[in-house]
Amino acid sequence: MSEQQKTILLVEDEEAHAALITRAFEDHHASWQLQHVKTLKEAKSILAGQQPDLMLLDNRLPDGEGLELLPGTVENRIFPIIMMTAYGDEKVAVNALKFGALDYVVKSDSMFAEMPHMAERALREWEYVTQNRHAEMIIQMERKQAQTYLDIAGVMFCVLDSKGDIKLMNRKGAEILCCDENETIGKNWFELFISDDIREEIKGVFDQLMNGEIDPVEYYENEVITKTGKRRIIAFHNTILRDEQGKPSGVLFSGEDITEQKEAEAALRQFEHIVSSSTDMMAMLDSGFTYLSANPAYMKAFNKTQDEMIGHTVAELFGEQFFNEIIRPKVERCLAGEEVNYQTWFDFPNSKTLYMDIHYYPYLVAENKVAGYIANARDITDQKRSEQRTLRQEVQAKRILETALDAFIQIDADGLIREWNPHAELIFGWKKEEVLGHALTESIIPQGNRQQHEEGIKHFLATGEGAVLNKVIEIEALHSDGHLLPIELSIVVEKDNGDTYFNAFLRDITDKNRACDELLKSHFDLKDSLAGTVGAISKAVEARDPYTAGHQQRVAEIACAIAEEMGLDEGQIEGIRMGASIHDIGKIQTPAELLSKPTQLTKFEFQLIKEHTTIGYDILKDIKFPWPVADIAHQHHERVDGSGYPQGLKGDEICLEARIVAVADVVEAISSHRPYRAALGIDFALDEIKAKRGIFYDPEAVDACLKAYEDKRFSV
After folding, report:
1. Structural contact between residues 178 and 160, judged by C-beta atoms closer than 8 angstroms
2. How far apart (Å, rounded) are the C-alpha atoms in residues 671 and 667?
3. Total-model pTM
4. Which residue of 165, 246, 564, 606 is most buried, as measured by CB atoms within 10 A?
5. What is the pLDDT of residue 271?
6. How far apart are CA 178 and CA 198, in angstroms?
7. What percent of the chain has pLDDT over 90?
């Protein structure tokens, strides 16, 4: 503890007790500055203006309970608090620790004399807790920063493993799929987001990709089903992830929701079938929006006779909503003396939907008074369609330009270069005049691929077939300075007057591959960071209990050996390792003297120890692990017959991981030294789980544990 003077706030209404505590600090060390108050009100007044290094807090005070001064949770503590009481009330003790007290003591003369030592221990422990909290904040900041890079992306990013299970999804992906980005982790993409009618087919293609049976397709469009059941069309860009042996281990894809675009295209195609030409229409109406007259074209358009139209209102013909929202505001301007022109779509009774050019002219009577208006409507559907077609073509042309590969190279049937655009010069370094008329094999094709290139041309000319035609592939090309660079290549054959030309569109994907590598590295860095954090937490817990230091790590090793013997997959085993490594994290709130007590615990003390399962669960439950880490901490003292704690769960109500850790915990605890007894040995431990097999402990986990030791696959 630092020699700098420490301030202690003593909240104690008993003068005699306060005097004993004050004398103990005076006798112990001169660097303590003790401030004594007797009531909650006085304590609150001091705390409002300054923060002590330590508070010694009596529970029963004249104006209330000392519990009122506790922060409410362990996480909210800003300085250590030792709660004192003259009565060994178990409920008060539990609540004190739960609501943020660092320690809880029962008053006695010996306790008063020991108080300076207790204060020193509390301050040392608080310094350690503060440092550990800062380290955890740094780790969380780095993790959030990495996730932010993905979350700010404007498209979906997702990583699947070789089974199709989701390993990563960014915020945009969760938004498109109407789900929480964390709830999908570990779940199967095809089961969650692919409809039943196409799931088998798409999963089959994915499996072929993972087995290396087919070449990957960089871009495709496919339908997905969101969590809310809506169908969306996604444009996917895929990159195959590979392991150290180069075998496919998963896929990273980006996806853009193009549903609205596709629906607009479909609606436009449908409209083109139903739209047709029509003649001009004219009608006269009064200021009350009632038809006075209408020409035949107008009535024909609405499938009305003269009697059915004259004397009726516009609202009756078009409907109240359309009239009030579209027509009425414009007609009222006309009735005010203004000529009004607008264009809009109309649904006619003859099932035609036409785009109309509408003019409203005020018609005047005596003294230039506006008595009504004349409506003149001209069908300009063809013009509108032409504009839409032109706009669509412009959008399509823009999309082609935006997504076109950067370089264009054309070769003839002899393999000689005929075209070489400026982007080809930029990517490969050769000027156009240097390569025109020369064989492509003399420039960008690496030495090892030249024979295959020449044979591919000959094969196409003989059969009309080409393995790389009309698809996008990734290959390496040669730069003029001799270095290889990754490119995307698409080849289209062109026939012109009997001559054959091969048009190649190429793109340098060096930056794209680097980005994918960095994204993958970020994923593994996050995973390593998580493992490091768990390890640090485990050491933090065991640092408070020197007699059982290493207990959690040994339990983790035994539990993993059991899980391997049971045939669990690597993901579950990793989750068990993580959970077992911090299964006793709740003991971080257990008084240190109880953890190292060399004699049998009292009933009250054991009750405090038992709280570590619930405390551990509360600490871990809001952390988004891909495994049931919080449940392991909560349930590792449950027993299959329901006799365990804290919930008295039975059988399969206890998660499999917790049942495995329970066996490993017992074996390690019995076979190792404890403060209150010597180690009983591994044989004793194995006999215990064998005797309680199916009663306390999961039979399969017990059998796997016994087998692991029997085969000498594991030893303590």
Report:
1. no
2. 6
3. 0.34
4. 165
5. 32
6. 21
7. 32
